[in-house]
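Researcher: Last one for today. Full complex below.
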Amino acid sequence: MPDFAAAPIEPIVEGRVTFPAGPGGVAVFDGKGIVSIFRLPATGGQGGYIFVFDVGLPGNAGAVPFGPSPPLAPDPDVRAMVTPLGTGAPPSSGITFIGVSYPPSAVTGVGSPAIAIVLQTSLGAFIDPVAGFHIVVWRGIGGGVVS
Amino acid sequence: MTDYAAVPFQPIVQGVISFPLGVAPGSPVVFDGEGVSGIARVVGFPTGAYVLNLDEGLPGNAGAVEPGAGPVVNPHVRTMITARGTGVPPVSLVATSAVLYLLSPVAGVGADQIVVVTETFPLALVDNPAGLEIIVWVVPNG
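Model: Here's the assembly. Have a good evening.
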């Protein structure tokens, strides 16, 4: 196999999110690349989170830049993986829908200093998975639009 | 940290699949990133199914990823699909996604296309309004 990455990506966040006091309790991130977690008020106390990127990450003051746009505005050059952990036998997470987004900084041109993650059941309820979830975020490098 | 990858794999595709004119059935779909030279909806499916042509500069033969050995068609590829959310809070419409690697009609070439399918719940094909993030890795033989 050729020894190169045809589509280079850089991991900037890796870790696990848990709820030591149970769902609805304080969310804890154990890993690298995140300096703090807030819950999204709109999800009613579970299933919605804002993860603030470490200021040591690539970009301006810990933010990830947006890609060239339009027509894809806003399109931050970031790719994220979110995987709930399961509990029970078989280990089930209860999560059906996973959404991610990158809220832009209030400072023009900075990009996004955080990632928002929303987790829902099949009925649309916002929940914290009992066993937590894994998260990895990569910066995408370069590229362009094809159709 | 030890400076090695115990399970090496190489990213060959990274990007975002999106719908610049919205998600009406049959609306245009675009890919913004690296490793894909073309994208289109799967013929006969106006929502939720896309075929991505691997860039011919990728590892393998003529842009294809080599198939695995054995009775199961198992291209040495791993793919991640993540839906971006819209609104407040940012929710996605995708409950499940699937990928399939289409073999080239030329014997021995391997797969030169990836099909991505996204469905909501209850199960129905769906375009996710905010798009999909995708990464594809090639892995050595296991």
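Chain A touches chain B at residues 1-2, 4-9, 40, 42-43, 48, 67, 70-72, 75, 78-82, 96-101, 116, 118, 120, 122, 124, 126, 138, 140-147 (CB under 8 Å). Chain A has a mean pLDDT of 85.
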